[in-house]
Amino acid sequence: MEITFSGKRALVTGAGKGIGRETVKALQRGGAQVIAVSRTQTDLESLALECPGIETICVDLANWDETDEALKAIGAVDLLVNNAAVAVLQPFLEVTKDAWDRSLEVNVKAVAHVSQIVARQLIENGSQGAIVNVSSQASMCALQDHTVYCATKGAVDMLTKVMALELGPKKIRVNAVNPTVVMTDMGRLGWSNPQKAAPMKSRIPLGRFAEMDDVVNTILFLLSDKSAMIHGATLPIDGGFLAT
Ligand code: NAP
I want to staple 176 with a disulfide (CB 3.0 to 4.6 A). Which of 12, 92, 132, 234 is the partner? Predict the structure, then answer.
């Protein structure tokens, strides 16, 4: 199955590191013109060296007004990957207001906000589009110390469904991917301790965590016309973790 994005403009949030960074590279290899949005300028500079021709925008997506300002001139975007997120791990009884505020701003409100900006433009131009929200298996399964993260990813799943309901008639497809652990900076934060990782792996029927490509390939599929009838889905990339 060949997927090509020639002639398409794609915007990826959280593009500086991890899954977002690899998604930018894969979209560019697929022929898309990519806009990489992230928080750390040096990450964007090194990405631009690796992927000549991409556009970069440095903004903290937790700030609504700065996001409006930074994205006001992006022009038409056909494909959006809402990937940026933070994971603040705290036992339930120790969860702080700051953890809630930061996580809700980035993981939930920015997903809706960037989607509004892109969708309004698509609708104005009468163009079709596709949006993929990067959620997590944590949206559907309770994980120790993940109160805030699980709650925000549950919100992303429901946000995805409501966006699908309202944007489908406007020819914008919206889906979510729900990966298990991937060994990015974020993945290492929760799972680099073998004593924590082993019991988690043992609950995954395929017996391993996800590789970056497992997630990126699924995102590309959901952005592409090959998934033209998939809409409002929350798709596990979890080796069967959620099936058990
Ligand atoms: P990561 O390695 O921590 O990378 C996250 C990227 O998002 C970084 O470039 C980060 O920039 C950026 N970002 C964070 N907050 C931002 C903000 N306020 N404004 C702009 N950019 C921001 O994480 P990852 O593992 O690739 O995760 C990507 C997505 O996959 C997330 O939605 C995550 O929840 C999801 N996910 C990850 C796993 C996993 O195990 N890794 C599993 C399931 C789902 P800075 O570093 O500059 O802040």
Answer: 234
